[in-house]
Amino acid sequence: MTPLEQVYRQEAARITAALAARIGDVGLAADAVQDAFIEAIEHWRDGEVPPNYGGWLATTARRKAIDRLRRARAGQQKLALLAATMTDGGGGEDGSEAGAGTADTDDELLGMIFACCHPALPRESQIALTLRAVCGLTTAEIAAAFLVAEPAMTQRLLRARKALRAAHADLRVPDPDELASRLAEVLAVIYLVFNEGYLASAGRQPARRDLAAQAVTLTRLLHRLMPREPEVLGLLALLLLHESRAATRFDGWGRLVRLADQDRARWDGALITEATRLLDRALALRAPGPYQVQAAIAALHAEAPGFEQTDWAQIRLLYDRLQALTPSPVVLLNRAVATRYVVGHQAALAEIMPLASELDGYRLFHALRAGLLAGLGRDDEARAARERALALAGNPAERELLARQLSF
């Protein structure tokens, strides 16, 4: 990564948040910051980053926003707001940055996260806009991550920005009486971003480590600003527990390594310790939620000295709790994995068969069914189920693992 790319990752989101808070338009702010970085590429020779680069970029982004507003018929009110911030202690050529200090900037960034996850937007647009405006990914990078053409992603982002303007989305953290419902949307979007990074749904790359890292960074920010929110603590613990195994999930050939075969000595003990401490704090608040339960399940896996010593009975009980909180056939499917080790293959198969109609298009249903059938000696049925799972899998590492199992 070049020095300029590092600056982009570090500064783009904060500058965008501060600018968006002043003009009330996430899309315009993101475009202006993008323009500022393009100018930086042209003026910063050989990629060398000058001193006070944050202030330079913030000032340039504000001027780019003014240029865009001057060209827009409906931009006069926003232009007046922005001009007021520039004449009231705004940044200058010396690199001094306009606006408030770090705490205020963090509040602005958190407000932008809530705006990007506004309920007026469909989930795919929430994710795309969060990646663009908050995480600082380019439109091309987002398009590549979700296997769509860049022009199509550009249009999706434009529609999202228009929807936010039409909804008069507030770029501030919601009032306390609205926080619970809005926070659930934010956490769901961050978790989806992490899952896409942890195991890509499609494409050539089996994982997108940059997306997973961005999701962890966002959750840490939420935790810093909302330190007593149990589900923020739970989600952060969950992501860190997953991250603790990241180095062992693929072998040297890029092939997926099953949990049972991972080298636990290479798991990141520091992340596990941090995650379990966060989970303990969340549970002490006595406001259980689905992320806390999922983190507790992940913690049982992380704390087991070996796969055979995993407390599957406790995991099965936790999936019962998760099903009570968020009923889903996928939760029941995961519960059946625990049933396999607690009761047996036949009992687990009996649990998942009622899910067949709902999960027929879900690759992991057929992969689990294949494993259960193989354990019962029903090899022909197992092979057919594995072939169905392979046909549905889009991730290259998953496809390779299923193909490898079919070859045995």
Q: How would you portray this structure in words?
A:
With 408 residues, this protein is mainly α. It is 69% helix and 0% strand. The protein is built from 19 helices and no strands. It has helices spanning 3-23, 26-43, 53-71, 76-87, 102-116, 123-134, 139-145, 150-166, 176-198, 209-225, 230-243, 269-284, 290-303, 312-325, 329-342, 345-352, 363-375, 379-392, 396-407. Helix 10 packs antiparallel against helix 11 (230-243) and helix 11 (230-243) runs antiparallel to helix 12 (269-284). The two termini are 42 Å apart.
Keywords:
408 residues; mainly alpha
What is the percentage of strand-forming residues? Answer: under 5%
Q: What's the story with the biggest beta sheet?
A: none
What is the tally of beta strands? 0
What would you call the structural class? mainly alpha
Tell me the radius of gyration: 24 Å
Measure the end-to-end span.
42 Å
Kindly state the mean pLDDT as a whole number? Answer: 83
* Helical coverage, percent range: 55-70%
Q: Give unreliable regions as ranges.
A: 86-101
Shape: globular
Total count of helical runs of at least 4 residues:
19
* H/E element order: HHHHHHHHHHHHHHHHHHH
